[in-house]
Amino acid sequence: MMKIFTYQPFYYQKSALKFLVFLLIFNGCKSVQKQLQGNSSEIVNHQEDFMYQYSIIDALMAGVFDGDLNMAQLKKKGDFGIGTFNRVDGELLMDQGHVYRVSYDGSVKEVPDSDSTSAAFVKFFKADTIIHLKGNLTYEAVQEQLTEILNPNGIYALRISGNFATMNTRAERPAKPPYTTLPAHLKVNQTVFNLTNTTGICDGFLLPPYLARTNVPGFHLHYLANDKKAGGHIFTFTTSSVTVEVDIAKGFTIENNTNAEFHNVNLKPDRGAELRKIE
Amino acid sequence: MMKIFTYQPFYYQKSALKFLVFLLIFNGCKSVQKQLQGNSSEIVNHQEDFMYQYSIIDALMAGVFDGDLNMAQLKKKGDFGIGTFNRVDGELLMDQGHVYRVSYDGSVKEVPDSDSTSAAFVKFFKADTIIHLKGNLTYEAVQEQLTEILNPNGIYALRISGNFATMNTRAERPAKPPYTTLPAHLKVNQTVFNLTNTTGICDGFLLPPYLARTNVPGFHLHYLANDKKAGGHIFTFTTSSVTVEVDIAKGFTIENNTNAEFHNVNLKPDRGAELRKIE
Predict the structure, then answer these.
(1) Residue A268 touches partner B, C-beta closer than 8 Å
(2) CA torsion through residues B26, B30, B31, B33, sign
(3) E strands within B55-189?
């Protein structure tokens, strides 16, 4: 069962809250939450509605920039998601089974199945809930509104579509071995794109705090313009209206990177503070 | 391909190290590590050699003592592992597909399929490597020796068997709602068992630091005497000889607890320091 509701946090904040409260009461206080958990009997795929990730964020942070999973294999784990490629050669976005690379020069290309990833986070996407947000919205405001609605301990895939007055993203130049850390690499190899009046999708995840070290806690979204001419890792955006498709996962699978560097890297330090600086 | 080698860290420490070094060189420097990763083509089961866990350690720490996964369902995820039951009613040990409960009164009983767990960590166990350790060994010494051999970023299931001169374990009394935290519960509801001259198995996991918050980083083992008359969560032991079966996992699946309390609990605090106090 899919629920669609409109949430207008800025123009009609009080009435929107009343509307949400009404929904909660009308549905017996727990039904919005329950419905946001997804209905497993309706979702039939061989991954059992679990999110999947190859490698972990802390390994990428520490400079494990190569992996052994190619796009053909990744597509067996999900049809939607984000990540990067070997040598951190650009930003990965997967939508409806197609994988795109946003390169440091701003170009977008569909990626051949033979290319490999050093870190990717995917899911078979099926929206459980659709939320419409309207108003004078920033990325931060969208995050705040969704945080109010969604459970802080849930694992959510999010597909946010709309027209964006401004969209601020980045993509990175591929690294050459010997690799440095991701923050050090981004410092001098990151291109920032300041897009305006762009229509497209923001694909990614909202993850709970206990997945720190393995992934990015909170919101992590990549952008792809509908004309496939721009995109990247999202820093900020502004919009007057977005549609948010929410797909809650039952859980989470981590597949360790089999690259030799994964075995040699020091994963003891908590890299959370460093991670927040580059997000 | 399974490798068996004997490691005598105390009596023959230098020669044992030489033997290990020889093995590493003889096999081309990486083969012991590669072989410890398991050979996926040889391991055929429907979980693809992944570890599975129901709920996360931080939720259990915070007092989410009930879950919705019963033993029949858990046995579909693995035939080996550890955990607890609803109401934290004793220590769970699964071995060769049988689930045992070690109760606070020290008794051990096989558990009916209808009983449920609030947190359990399991795998289909198939040893990739067998290591024999001999000497005047404590639990800490066994941990040190295994830490030297195994990769710090790997996910390992361990089955340690032998005769133990001493074995120090615990099991806990079931909680009554409203629940407190796990440390507060254990403080007054934990029985410690000081076993002597006992023969049995220590089943559990060695996990990497990035799984903090979701599970117990480092070693986490439960004990079951061969006569099924004693066991529990292991604090310490002493032995002169153990056989360590090592099964390296390709990855890790976390299934979120669907109990309502999981959605209400605050999972933001890092409970690592509290966890180390009760391990």
Answers:
(1) yes
(2) positive
(3) 69-70, 80-84, 91-95, 98-102, 108-110, 116-117, 119-123, 129-138, 155-172
Dihedral sign for Cα B144, B147, B149, B155, please.
positive
Q: Identify whether the C-beta of residue A215 lies closer than 8 Å to the C-beta of residue A57.
A: yes
Which of A147, A129, A145, A160 shows the shortest CA–CA distance to A247?
A129
Q: Determine how β-strand A218-225 pairs with β-strand A231-249.
A: antiparallel
Are residues A126 and A22 in contact, defined by beta-carbon separation less than 8 angstroms?
no
Q: How far is the first Cα of chain A from the last one, in angstroms, to the nearest whole number?
A: 34
Q: Transcribe B2-56 into DSSP letters.
A: -EEEEE-TTTSHHHHHHHHHHHHHHTTSSHHHHHHT--TTT---TTTTEEEEES-
Contacts of residue A210 in chain B, CB cutoff 8 Å?
56, 58, 213-214, 267
Distance CA B267, CA B168 (A): 31
Note whether B37 contacts A: Cβ–Cβ < 8 A: yes
β-sheet bridge partners, residue B157: B205, B247
Q: Which two tokens stand for residue A15?
A: 């009435």
Residue A241 contacts residue A39 (beta carbons within 8 Å) = no
Q: What is the dihedral of CA B147, B151, B154, B160, to 10 degrees?
A: -40
B258 touches chain A (CB under 8 A): yes
Name the domain count of chain A.
Answer: 1
What are the backbone dihedrals phi and psi of residue B137, each rounded to the nearest 5 degrees, phi first?
-100, 135
* CA angle B103–B61–B160, rounded 5-degree value: 55
CB atoms A153 and B254 under 8 Å: no
CATH number at residue A98: 3.30.1330.80
Is residue A124 within 8 A of residue A80, CB to CB? The reply is: yes
Q: Are B218 and B155 in contact (CB under 8 A)?
A: no
* Structural domain includes residue B163: yes
Cβ atoms of residues B39 and B2 within 8 Å = no
pLDDT band at B48 (very low <50, low <70, confident <90, very high): confident
Q: Is position A50 within any domain?
A: yes
Q: Is residue A243 part of a domain?
A: yes
Residue B279 falls inside a structural domain: no
pLDDT for residue B43:
36
Q: Which residue has the tokens 């309207």?
A: A134
Torsion angles phi and psi, residue B29, rounded to 5? 70, -25
> What's the gap in Å between the CA of B108 and the closest CA on chain A?
32
Does B256 sit within 8 Å of A154, measured CB to CB? yes
What tens digit of pLDDT does each residue of A163-194 get? Answer: 999 999 999 999 999 999 999 999 999 999 99
Q: Which of A60, A84, A53 is nearest to A265 (CA)?
A: A60
- CA B50 – CA B40 distance, rounded (Å): 11
Range of the domain at A22: 3-257
Q: Is the ipTM of this complex over 0.90?
A: no
Using CA coordinates, name the residue in chain A closest to B40.
A258
B143-180 pLDDT, tens digit per residue, is 999 999 999 999 999 999 999 999 999 999 999 999 99
Region A74-87: mean pLDDT is 97
In this structure, the number of other CB atoms found within 10 A of the CB of residue B4 comes to 11
